[in-house]
Model the fold of this input.
Amino acid sequence: MEKEDKKLLGGKIRTQLVKYIQDEPIQVGNKLPNEFELAEKFGVGRSTIREAVKELVSQGMLEVRRGSGTYVISTCPAEEDPLGLGKYDDKYQLALELFDVRLMIEPEIAAFAARDATDEQIEELKRLCDEVEEIYNSGKNHVQKDIELHTAIARCSKNRVIEILVPLIDSAVHTFANITHRGLKQETIETHREIVNAISRHDQVGARCAMVMHLTYNRQMIVKKLNEQERGKD
Done:
C-alpha cells in the first residue's frame, strides 16, 4: 500500500510539474529550478521530485545535463505531443501552420460527420459540447474536454484514416490553448454549438461552414498574437 501511495504521489507531482512548466511558462532550452527548490515548492521530498523528473525525461520533455542541471526540451510530455511538435521554439508560428493544415481537413471531417453520425454519436457530441461550455464558463481548464469533442467529431466520420489524424488535431488544440489561454471564450462556445447543431441536422454544408468559422476565429487570434510578438522585437 505504501509503495502504491508513493507511486500515486509521484504521478501527481509529475502532473503538477508539467503544469508548472506550461503555466510559467518555462521555454524550451531553459533550465528548471534545482531539486531543493522544486521539493520546497511542491511540498514533497527530493526523491519524489527526482522520480517525476525521471519520468518526464523518458517522455521527452526534460533533459538532465550532468553538472549543469535539468532543461526543458519540449513543453509537452510524449503522450500529449505524439507528433513531436514540442521541440519547436516558435509556438506562434507553429500554431499558425497547424491551423493551415486543420483548415484543409477539419471542415471536411465535420461534413463527413454530418453525413454519417448515428443518433447515439450525436447525443455524445451534444453532451461534450455542453461539458466544454460548462467547464469554460466555470473558469477551469477546458482543453482536454475540447479535444474530446473534436476527437468525437472525427470518429463520427467513420473514416479510419481520419482517426489516425486525430493526434494532429489534438496537438493543434493544445498548442493554441497554451498560447492564447482564454482569449476566444464566447466565439469557441458559439461555434462549437453551431458545428454540433449542423451535424445533428445532418447538414453537411452547415457543418463544413461552421467548422471553417470556428477555425477562422482561432487562426485570426494566432495572427494577432504573432503580429504582437513581431512588434515586440522591433
